[in-house]
Design brief:
Chain lengths: 222, 667, 248
């Protein structure tokens, strides 16, 4: 396995696998979140389950964190390596002639998403951790909906979220389909995969943006 | 026999090669490790020879001027490779391939060599398939064949229009395997500057590292030259820009005879010259003649209107077109051998029927083929009464499948769509049948110096058939030379490493350095290309598709004075101690300026017309070549004596015991 | 037409290079790009200056010698052509054309526009072959029937000319398209299956050692490849590599 990791292809596969895992996570995150619009009670129930189920908390959550770290660390490492592979730069380089801006700037969209993740963790996850493990407050299966809606009250946060979702969409637009290529999947199903990933890459972030804007426009009136 | 002993083994033709292989001495595997061989040139012949020699256990050093062996000009061969496999069951056999080749060469090649070539041709295909060469296949998974000019069977194996590329990459992969094992040491971007002889034997070379300019000494027990042909003596040819005669010419100056220099192939289907800026010519594969019909307007006024852009070829009615090959040669039609097709095109253009601005082009028309294939395709796809437009579209698809890359290449260069309007073509210098004289073992007149592939003269006589160059290159390299060279090297098992500090190496190196210095010190104002272009014009006008005594004599004088001017006035900028492409060119052109003169002298000496050599004085009333077997059934082998004009002619009489000499007829 | 050329000049591998400006007149649309360079060089020689050195040989798009990054793209703005087949009719009177060598750490500059591409040779040497001797005793060529589609696909992969445009175009200077084309050719043929595991591992190892970047699937290589080598090859190599890693 360690030998496998030394090669450029293996590193790409790690990027692909971790990326796909995050894409999957994003989907399930969305399914839960959209409930906050459709059915706040279900949202509360599911959120509580995710927050207190030991399997989720002590197995899936660490895996997710590891996945995020691996994806970002590897992405940055690869970027540095790729930069070094062309020590003298072109005076004129017409990248747009042969590849999309998105595919050439994954590091930019990726770093924005990373920054967003910082904000997002600060907003929700740190709060959760503090609630559960530092302040050790009692379990309350009904608090999630209100907490969420409240977060989107400030315009600034909502705008930041929406912008980040936009960049996430760009990142996914290249990354999702690309991960199949990295794992060696390029065959007659590729056009179908590409269509699906396009829908997903635009649909999911659009959905998240919708949720943010919806809650911003529909604050809970006390 | 004198010094020209062809060493053809005795016995019946079909048994000669086997008998010879059984009788020659071998070198045992342990001793091979102590023997070094230098291979100069890494195309089909050199690459395959290097790989096989290394497989056998010899220590091989390869040299090429390109940055990688994979770039040798064999890569540009398009159409295919012949082999007498008879997979099509159309009556092919070793004898028929042998017969076609000797006849196609207008009875100026050596029977035994050609028969051996035909005999090993099948093995080449086996070998290449085993190496993973992706030849074209039929739907049943078996190998496909196409037919080529000058023959009546389908024996040509191909990989789209890139057969040379695929075969070369095969040989290159075999080389890579040996490089990986440490058995081949590749010296790329190196040029052979001289052959080093010790006690009359080839014992090494002086090479220039083209990156650093260093002059290096390399010793070996034998030297193989597989450096291709000298078509670039014409400046404009289908050869690569770097293709040159230097290695062969250096060997010639050291005693290797140069045979039949005037036997040059002018290929009938090339893209015509578009202007003075032209740096090289592009071939359109002969395979196109399978489906394309060649024509010019039947009336002079139509030709003129087309030249002036007032008339389009597609507007010309069928009866106003002159399909001159079909008219003159009904049996072979558009598939006559190259020399015949080229001369016929020149004849029409000289008469004023040429169809481009320069008046030096004829049409190659695919319209009939498009409609024919279209109809067939429509029927097999279940369309019983398809309209013309559908048929045309289907036909164009079929043609694209067969020749897509060639059509695309044509469109890029000429900026016209060849599916819609006929291609314009004109003959261009393509291949040189002449080369270093070799015996049956492929050894030159210098002991220990071998020549393989286009660099030698042996197999194609006065005209080469299509798809036979690849066959010969690989036959020499994979299956002939590695065995025959063992016979010579078996005497060298006790010699030990050849030192490079001997007086002979010293002297050769000094000569090389002096020559470079002389080239660098030319005080004049003209670039190397200036001279090369003038030389090319002389060659094309006076030693080209048709030749006569007066012009050949003029060519000799003109080249001789051009050479003197060159050495006096050439300007080579830069320094000899770095990469210097002008210096590289200068060295090559210097040798072309000597070869060109010998070429003309050879053509002047051969008072007959045969194959690619057409002397206006010797033709039938219908304008066909008139061979003179009584007086010229020999190989002209030239010995170097200083100036080309002093070269001494030796004749190797050709004996035909298995084939009856006939007037070549494709009518 | 009249043109301004901005050309990278560099004396040798160890010197520092720089962009230099040249103007050139009387260029005809029927000239190839390299013939335009010939005209420039002829002028430079006549002026007593050193000509611009560039790799070129066959000038018919098959040897893979010519390179050049022209206006930011390998082999210039046209598609499916090498520089030697690029014609000046693709440019307009008064244009400024920037001409640089292919840039990659693994392709060091030798002089002016000439780069050292022997890294490609070393990748091939690591495993780009089938280990079969030239004994003359190989089985009959038709005893291995091969599906026409596989044979055709193998051919399309094998059509790579090793020019390095893929590396030059890639923002990461990755050599995946080149390496995968060779791996694919053999992976698609029954003859190549025997050594498949070692081949892909050895070739990828060498590719990484040469200092090429990593593939990020931008697809620039496929677009710029003069021979239209497909990205499918890269996917195939990834697949071959993964399965080889599992097999050990």
């Amino acid at each position: 396995m360690s030998g496998l990791l030394k090669s450029s292809i293996a590193r790409k596969v790690v990027m692909a696998l971790s990326g796909l895992f995050l894409v999957f996570f994003l989907g399930q995150h969305f399914v839960i979140n959209i409930m906050s619009v459709i059915a706040p009670d279900t949202f509360n129930t599911w959120s509580h389950f995710m927050g207190y189920n030991p399997l989720v908390q002590y197995l899936l959550q660490p895996i997710l964190i590891a996945g995020v770290i691996v994806h970002f660390a590897m992405g940055i490492a690869l970027e540095i390596q790729n930069n070094r592979a062309r020590s003298v730069k072109y005076a004129k380089y017409k990248g747009g002639a042969n590849a999309s801006w998105i595919s050439r700037n994954m590091i930019i969209t990726g770093l924005v998403v990373l920054a967003f993740l910082g904000l997002h963790m600060y907003d929700f996850w740190i709060h959760e951790m503090a609630y559960k493990y530092i302040e050790v407050k009692p379990e309350d299966p009904t608090r999630y909906y209100a907490e969420t809606v409240e977060k989107f009250e400030p315009v600034l946060r909502t705008v930041l979220y929406v912008i980040s979702f936009g960049l996430l969409a760009l990142h996914l637009l290249h990354g999702f389909a690309s991960s199949f290529q990295s794992m060696g999947l390029n065959n007659k199903y590729t056009p179908a995969i590409k269509t699906f990933t396009k829908i997903y890459a635009i649909g999911i972030p659009l959905g998240f943006a919708f949720i943010a804007i919806y809650h911003h426009l529909n604050p809970i009136t006390h | 026999m004198g010094i020209l002993d062809s060493k053809v083994p005795a016995g019946p033709l079909a048994a000669k090669w086997t008998k010879h292989k059984n009788e020659i001495d071998l070198v045992n595997p342990a001793n091979k490790r102590n023997i070094d061989i230098i291979v100069v040139g890494t195309g089909l012949a050199g690459g395959s020879a290097a790989a096989t020699l290394a497989e056998l256990g010899y220590n091989v050093k390869t040299f090429c001027y390109q940055d990688s062996p994979r770039r040798a000009h064999s890569i540009a061969a398009q159409g295919g490779i012949n082999a007498a496999k008879n997979y099509q069951g159309d009556g092919d056999s070793n004898y028929r391939l042998f017969y076609d080749t000797v006849k196609g060469g207008d009875y100026r090649s050596r029977e035994a060599n050609v028969y051996r070539l035909a005999e090993v041709s099948g093995q080449i295909i086996d070998q290449c398939v085993a190496q993973g060469v992706p030849f074209a296949r039929e739907y049943g998974g078996l190998l496909d064949n196409r037919s080529f000019g000058g023959v009546l069977v389908s024996r040509t194996f191909y990989a789209k229009g890139q057969t040379g590329q695929q075969l070369l990459l095969g040989a290159y992969s075999a080389m890579n395997r040996q490089i990986n094992r440490g058995k081949i040491q590749p010296f790329n971007r190196h040029e052979m500057m001289d052959l080093v002889k010790i006690d009359g034997k080839a014992r090494g070379i002086i090479a220039r590292n083209l990156i650093t300019g260093e002059i290096e000494r390399h010793s070996a027990h034998a030297v193989v030259l597989a450096t291709g042909g000298y078509g670039n003596v014409f400046f404009l040819s289908t050869n690569a820009m770097g293709s040159n005669v230097m290695a062969a010419w250096r060997a010639h100056r050291r005693g290797a005879h140069f045979a039949n220099p005037c036997f040059t192939q002018i290929h009938p289907t090339c893209i015509p010259v578009s202007g003075d800026h032209q740096s090289k010519l592009t071939l359109m594969s002969e395979s196109l003649r399978n489906d394309g019909r060649i024509w010019v307007p039947a009336k002079l006024e139509d030709a003129q209107a087309i030249r002036e852009g007032k008339l389009k070829p597609t507007q010309l009615k069928e009866e106003d077109r002159d399909y001159y090959l079909e008219r003159r040669y009904p049996a072979f039609g558009n598939l006559v051998p190259r020399d015949v097709a080229s001369r016929a095109a020149k004849e029409r253009c000289d008469e004023g029927f040429g169809i481009n601005k320069t008046g030096e082009a004829v049409y190659l028309d695919f319209d009939a083929a498009i409609m024919r294939y279209g109809k067939e395709k429509a029927l097999t796809s279940g369309m019983k009464d398809a309209d013309d437009k559908t048929i045309r579209n289907l036909g164009e698809e079929v043609i694209e499948n067969k020749y897509g890359n060639l059509f695309q290449m044509y469109e890029k260069i000429v900026d016209e769509n060849p599916y819609k309007t006929p291609m314009m073509i004109y003959p261009a210098v393509h291949y040189t049948m002449g080369g270093l004289w070799v015996d049956y073992n492929l050894q030159t007149t210098v002991e220990g110096c071998y020549a393989a592939g286009e660099a030698n003269f042996s197999d194609h006589g006065a005209n080469r058939l299509g798809a036979s160059a690849l066959m010969q290159g690989l036959a020499d390299g994979y299956f002939v030379l590695p065995y025959t060279i063992g016979d010579y090297l078996s005497n060298d098992i006790r010699t030990g490493k050849i030192p490079t500090d001997s007086p002979e190496f010293e002297a050769s190196e000094k000569e090389v350095r002096d020559r470079i210095e002389k080239l660098m010190n030319g005080k004049g104002t003209h670039s190397v290309d200036y001279y090369h272009k003038i030389l090319g014009k002389i060659m094309w006008n006076k030693c080209g598709m048709s030749r006569n005594e007066k012009e050949l004599q003029e060519a000799i004088d003109e080249i001789s004075s051009l050479r003197a001017d060159f050495w006096e006035n050439v300007r080579v900028p830069g320094s000899p101690d770095t990469k210097n492409q002008e210096l590289e060119k200068a060295g090559r052109v210097a040798d072309f300026l000597e070869l060109g003169e010998l070429f003309a002298k050879d053509a002047l000496t051969r008072n007959e017309s045969c194959g690619g050599h057409f002397r206006e004085e010797y033709q039938t009333p219908e304008g066909e070549a008139l061979r003179d077997d009584e007086n010229f059934k020999f190989v002209s082998s030239w010995e170097y004596k200083g100036e080309p004009k002093d070269a001494v002619l030796h004749k190797e009489e050709l004996k035909y015991e298995n084939i009856e000499l006939k007037t070549r007829s494709y009518k | 037409m009249k043109l301004t050329l901005k050309i990278w000049r560099q004396k040798d591998a160890n010197s520092k290079g720089k962009m230099m400006d040249y103007t050139i007149d009387g260029i005809d649309g029927d000239m190839s790009f390299l013939e335009m360079m010939d005209v420039l060089n002829e002028e430079l020689i006549n002026k007593g200056e050193e000509p611009v050195e560039f790799d070129h040989d066959c000038r018919e798009g098959i040897c893979g010698s010519c390179s050049l990054q022209i206006n930011g793209e390998p082999h210039g703005p046209d598609r499916l052509v090498t520089t030697c087949q690029l014609h000046m009719r693709k440019f307009n009177d008064g244009d400024t054309i920037t001409i640089e060598p292919f840039r990659a750490k693994a392709f060091p500059v030798i002089k002016d526009l000439i780069v050292d591409r022997t890294a490609f040779d070393r990748i091939q040497q690591a495993g780009g072959f089938i280990s079969v001797n030239t004994s003359g005793n190989t089985q009959d060529a038709n005893s291995i029937p091969i599906d026409k589609h596989d044979a055709d696909d193998a051919f399309y992969s094998a059509a790579c000319i090793g020019c390095g445009a893929c590396v030059a175009a890639c923002k990461n200077a990755s050599a995946m398209l080149f390496t995968s084309a060779k791996v694919s050719q053999y992976a698609l043929l029954p003859q190549g299956k025997v050594e498949a595991v070692d081949r892909v591992q050895n070739m990828v190892r060498q590719m990484d050692l040469e200092g090429f970047g990593n593939c990020t699937n931008t697809g620039a290589c496929e677009v710029e490849c003069p021979k239209g080598i497909s990205l499918e090859n890269i996917a195939r190599m990834n697949r071959e590599y993964l399965s080889a890693s599992v097999k050990g």
